[in-house]
Amino acid sequence: MQINIHSSWQKMLQSEFEKPYFKSLMAFVDHEYANHTCYPKKEAIFNAFNWTPFDQVKLVIIGQDPYHGAGQANGLCFSVNDGMAHPPSLRNIFKELESDLNKPYPTSGNLDQWAKQGVLLLNATLTVRAGIAGSHQKQGWETFTDQVIKTISDQKNNVVFLLWGGFAKNKAKLINASKHTIITSGHPSPLSANRGYWFGNKNFSKANFQLEQVGVDPIVW
C-alpha cells in the first residue's frame, strides 16, 4: 500500500515504515481493502497526519478505532464526514464543549477545523472492517501509533495531550509529563458519560489555558 502521509511525518517516521511489522501491516490492510468493505477510504487512512503536519502539532486527542458505519470515518478520531449524523460519543463531546465554552452546538461533526489548528486527532488503529468494531486491532497499527505518540513526546515541547477513558490513559506512559501537559477524563461514550465521568471535565478550556501559558495560540474549538 502506498503511504500517503505528509512529508513532515514521513521524515519523522521513515524508520518505522521500513520495519517488518509495518510492512506486514500494510500487506494486511491491502488484503482487507481488496476483499472487504473497510473504513475510512484508503486515501483518508493517514488524514490525521495530513491535516496536522508534525511541526504544527500542539494538542493530541487519542481515540481507539475508526467508526465502522458507512460514510462515517474520515481519518480523524471522533470525527465524521460533513452531513453525517453525530455518533453518541461525538454528541457528548459537543455537549461538553457547549457547557465548557458557552458555544453553540456544532452542526457538522467534521473536526477538520480542529486538525487545521494543530490538533492531532489520532486513532490508535487507523482502519476497520465495515460493521465490525475492533476488527483491525492487534495487526500492528497500535505499535505504529504508539511510536507516533512517543515521537511527539521526544521531539516536541509543551504539547497538550487529552486522554479520554482507560484506553487513552494507558498511553500516558509514552509521554514525558515533565515537558508536556496530560489532561485526563472519562470517555465521552454514553456508558462513561452517564456515570458522571465525562460531563463537567472542562477539558477544552483547560487545554487552551495550558497552551496560553506557554505562549501558544489557543484552539478555536
From TrEMBL:
An annotated Gene Ontology molecular function: uracil DNA N-glycosylase activity
Top-level taxonomic group: Bacteria
Active site residues per record: D65 (proton acceptor)
Main location: cytoplasm
First-level EC class: hydrolase
Subcellular location: Cytoplasm
GO cellular component: cytoplasm
UniProt record similarity statement: Belongs to the uracil-DNA glycosylase (UDG) superfamily. UNG family.
Protein's UniProt name: Uracil-DNA glycosylase
Originating gene: ung
